[in-house]
TrEMBL record:
The keyword Signal applies. Keywords: Signal. One of its GO terms (biological process) is transmembrane transport. This is C4-dicarboxylate ABC transporter substrate-binding protein. Residues 1-21 form the signal peptide. It comes from Synergistes jonesii. Pfam families: DctP (PF03480). InterPro entries: DctP_fam, TRAP_DctP_sf.
Amino acid sequence: MKKYSTLIIALTIVASTVAFGSTAEAAKYRLASMYATDNYVVRALTRVADRVREQTKGEVDIVIYPSDQLGNYENCYQEVMRGTIDMIGNYPSSRFNKKFELVSVPGLTVSDEQAKKLLSKDSPMHKFLEKCYDENGVVYIGSYLDAIMYCNIGKGRNIRDPFAVGDKKGLTVRVVPVAAWRAFYTNMGYSVATIPWAEIFSSIQTGIIDADTGMNTEQAVASLGEVLGAHVQYLGASVVVVNDFCISKKTWNKFDDKTKQIIIDAFEAEREREWKDAVGAYYRDLETMKTKLGMKVYTPTAAQVKSNHEVAVKYCWPEAEKIVGKGIFEEINTFLGNK
């Protein structure tokens, strides 16, 4: 009887050990993020990690390293590709796959509601990014909203009608070196420039450039607040910036199907809250810009939103189609119900 009981106990231990595939012992998996712990994306990923830890009974322990502790996002993504870092909250840089430029195309959506739908797991963009990451040897779980990008203009600049198409603004704006993104601003009458991230503040302060399009409102308020005078909401031609939860294939292949599904479900379970937190942060920052920084906020009329979108479709999309093809735009339009 004693031997029989001992056998039962041993079998129970073995069964619990293999319940989550190869994660036999409590294993720690490193997740790199560029953002600080109080950022809404990191908070969401922290809740994802908590869910996974709870549902795997502590055997999959995702440890988040915020604020570039493991290196900047491009270096960390390379390590995820190699399998030396397990996971990342990633901005999809075209340095690693030119087709990632899709996420930098203005005017894919015309409203916050459409932007939310675009990021869903049923979206053509989700399927497109999944293929792109697979080409890099990385597993794509999904996208959270990082920011909806607009334009921040320096103090003391003479701002003509910012929504007049083709009107020479007499302003130089920093835009990342993505042809589709730049095409919007050049066709709206701006000159465009490439300035390193670390030099944005001094470049606006000294007049080398007049405006920036590459910081979200949280970053702009914190880093550029004292040199900014206006915020232009280019609704209809905004860029929906994503932060993608990715896992190295080396790490992913350690998990059994049950564990993989737990991770996917945990990410999806936090999608709605992360979206609300991200959008809420934007509007809080907008209020800070107006009330504390004294910035003027330019918001387009419905007719101007339509006009902005037409500029994006006419001039920006063809630039991106050279890289990603025309089909993905047709799929996104159909999915979102746009003509």
